[in-house]
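To illustrate the input format used throughout this study, we show a single complete record. The first block contains the structure-token representation of the backbone; no residue identities are included at this stage. The design step must infer an amino acid for every position from geometry alone.
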């Protein structure tokens, strides 16, 4: 029996919609066992999606990890240590089960988040992917896919993306062999 069951929270969380709650979200939410089950579920999905974007280019940089920790602490109103733990779990789940869970977790987030929360998530996804000063085309594609899976309008995506245009790798001038931008 897990901690949520012991505290009588598993039944409440599962009762919200047992068909849409994924194992990934349950594992991360269990680490947030002192929070209300719905809030823990929301933060678990939120953190996983941050990890999904960070991993899009096949690696999660130290800068991306720090950005994820800061964002989860701020948005989740969590102590730093707890945010670090949630991010580590989200990264691990994304690495191990991302291919299977990506769409399922995004669908779950779509079902529990308001439109404003989805737009805020989009900003956070771009913030994580730009933490290393460059948003790769793989990260940009993943963010666009998440926006689509969340049923956000293309105009919403474009509006948020425009705030990060200076970091888009696809819009940068190629560098010469000495590291300077080509003319």
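Output of the design step:
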């Amino acid at each position: 029996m897990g901690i949520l069951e012991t505290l009588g929270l598993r039944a409440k969380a599962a009762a919200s919609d047992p068909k849409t709650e994924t194992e990934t979200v349950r594992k991360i939410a269990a680490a947030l066992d002192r929070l209300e089950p719905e809030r823990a579920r929301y933060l678990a999905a939120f953190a996983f999606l941050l990890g999904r974007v960070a991993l899009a280019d096949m690696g999660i940089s130290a800068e991306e990890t720090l950005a994820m920790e800061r964002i989860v602490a701020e948005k989740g109103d969590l102590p730093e240590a707890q945010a670090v733990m949630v991010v580590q779990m989200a990264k691990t789940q994304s690495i191990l089960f991302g291919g299977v869970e990506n769409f399922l977790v995004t669908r779950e987030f779509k079902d529990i988040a308001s439109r404003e929360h989805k737009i805020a998530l989009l900003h956070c996804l771009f913030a994580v992917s730009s933490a290393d000063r460059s948003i790769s085309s793989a990260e940009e594609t993943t963010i666009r896919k998440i926006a689509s899976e969340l049923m956000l309008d293309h105009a919403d995506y474009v509006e948020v993306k425009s705030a990060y245009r200076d970091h888009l790798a696809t819009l940068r001038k190629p560098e010469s062999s000495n590291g300077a931008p080509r003319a």
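Structural context for interpreting the output: The chain has one domain: 8-170. The chain is about 65% helix and 0% strand.
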